Every structure is written in C-alpha cells, then in structure tokens.
Amino acid sequence: MPPIANTLSLDHFVLTVADLDAAVKFYEDVLGMRHDTIPIDGDTMHTLHFGQQKINIHLSGNEFLPKAHVARPGTSDICFLVEDDIQTVAQRLHEAKIEVLYDGKVVDQLGAQSKLHSVFFRDPDGNLIELANPVTH
Fold this sequence. Notes:
This protein is 16% helix and 38% strand. The protein has 137 residues and is α/β, with parallel strands linked by helices. It has two domains: 1-75, 2,3-Dihydroxybiphenyl 1,2-Dioxygenase, domain 1 (Roll); 76-137, 2,3-Dihydroxybiphenyl 1,2-Dioxygenase, domain 1 (Roll), CATH 3.10.180.10. Belongs to the glyoxalase I family.
C-alpha cells in the first residue's frame, strides 16, 4: 500500500510557553531568530523565523486551535543545526551564563543525515535545546 502522503520538509512547529516575552527574548538573543506577529481573529500569533522554517509560539492557556492534545511548556526536545563552530557556541553559552548540559561539553549524537557534534541546554520553559554541527569527515 502506498503512503497517504510523501513528506517533503518541515514548515513549522509549535512551542507552548509560560511567558511569551521571555521566550521571544531567548530565541532572538540566543538563537538569532526573527520575531514576527500575525493578527488572527482579533488575537495575535507570535512567530520566530529561522532559515526557511518558523516556530509558532502559543501562550499556555491561550493556545490557537487546533492545538496538540497535551500542550504544555517544557515538553519539547528540539535540535537546530547551526553554522557557527559548536565549540565556540558552547563557550558563548557559558559566557552568557546559560547552563550547558554534560558539564558544558560538546557531545556526539546521531542526526537525521549524519553524526553531529552537539551542545544541550534548556530554554526558559525547560525545553531541551540541542545545537549541532554535522560531522563532515
């Protein structure tokens, strides 16, 4: 039986947050994302753009519909590929007083396309954030 649809790429995902301003500031300041707002039915959708994707930010208790069955702050685990050297990123996180897991060390992971050199930390809601460089050799 053929699949119902062949997936091409990821367009966006949703993060549910406890503090909208803190989340937007974090993703702008730490990850260089661009904040935008979109008026929807008398409300405002907040989005964060990076590359050709975006994150829709929903405030906990005021989510846009449809929403995930269980939409709670701190339940996501996200990996972003970055162009900056991952050792430099780890140092910058340390300098910004953002706790890097694994004692601040870069660790090896397995990504969708290759092995990765990664650092892990948490956003203001406790979501696990992984920043990674693909291993090219």
